[in-house]
UniProtKB/TrEMBL annotation:
EC number: 3.5.1.19
Family designation: Belongs to the isochorismatase family.
Source organism of this protein record: Amaricoccus solimangrovi
Pathway where it operates: Cofactor biosynthesis; nicotinate biosynthesis; nicotinate from nicotinamide: step 1/1
Protein name, per record: Nicotinamidase
Listed GO biological process terms: pyridine nucleotide biosynthetic process
Gene3D superfamilies, per the entry: Isochorismatase-like
GO molecular function, one term: metal ion binding
Protein encoded by which gene: pncA
Ranges that cross the membrane: none
Pfam families xrefs: Isochorismatase (PF00857)
Keywords for this protein: Hydrolase, Metal-binding, Pyridine nucleotide biosynthesis
Positions of the Isochorismatase-like domain: 8-205
Length: 210
């Protein structure tokens, strides 16, 4: 068993309709993360949700580049960017949280990806790896020292969040069965190797008392 301490935070990444089956950037079985998240969330001192929240003209959308297909890449000022199908556009149904996600236990919602010129996978920093979302300061001020991660997608927003949390000095745990991956050209295997190299602990939600 693994018991989150009172100084723990569960960061629930992007459990939004567009990342669930039927959504604009659907992750296979993305909605399977909801039941484990709902069961374990009350065990954490703080619960933070992230919400991918893009303007329609966001430059991570393939449609906003001339003759570019979704899932190809472009070079942006801050590095290589995957071009995605338009997703999680501000105010649309697809940007909403999945209706079965238990929202009542959430202390804070962090919206990310709002600047049209830069993507934001991580809950902590935009993709320049420098511009903070404010979540790190919020957790620090509340005395949090453990960050536990769940949500979508394992190999993008969840992995980048976990790596940044480790960089910020939090003790980091990935709850593997409470995540699902996009797995683009081996991205899941690379992400898991990066997480382990960064000292992120990986366990199952069944290891956590509800
Ligand atoms: C995500 C791609 C684009 C994610 C968000 O939540 O993992 N992936 N925007
Ligand atoms: Zn996005």
């Amino acid at each position: 068993m693994a018991q989150p301490s009172p100084r723990s935070a569960l960061v629930v990444v992007d459990v939004q309709l567009d990342f669930c089956p039927g959504g604009a950037l659907a992750v296979a079985s993305g909605d399977a993360v909801i039941a484990p998240i709902n069961r374990i969330a009350p065990a954490f001192g703080t619960v933070a949700l992230t919400q991918d929240w893009h303007p329609a003209e966001h430059l991570s959308f393939a449609a906003n580049h001339a003759e570019r297909e979704p899932f190809s890449t472009v070079d942006m000022a801050y590095g290589t960017q995957v071009l995605w199908p338009a997703h999680c556009v501000q105010g649309t149904a697809g940007a909403g949280f999945h209706p079965e996600l238990a929202l009542d236990v959430a202390d804070v919602v962090i919206r990310k990806g709002t600047d049209p010129a830069i993507d934001s996978y991580s809950a902590f920093f935009e993709n320049d790896r420098r511009t903070p979302t404010g979540l790190g300061g919020y957790l620090r001020e509340r005395g949090v020292d453990e960050v536990w991660l769940a949500g979508l997608a394992t190999d993008f927003c969840v992995a980048w969040s976990a790596l940044d949390a480790a960089k910020l000095g939090f003790d980091v745990t990935l709850i593997e069965d409470a995540t699902r991956a996009i797995d683009l050209d081996g991205s899941l295997g690379r992400a898991m190797a990066d997480l382990r190299a960064a000292g992120v602990r990986v366990l199952a939600s069944t290891d956590i008392p509800g």
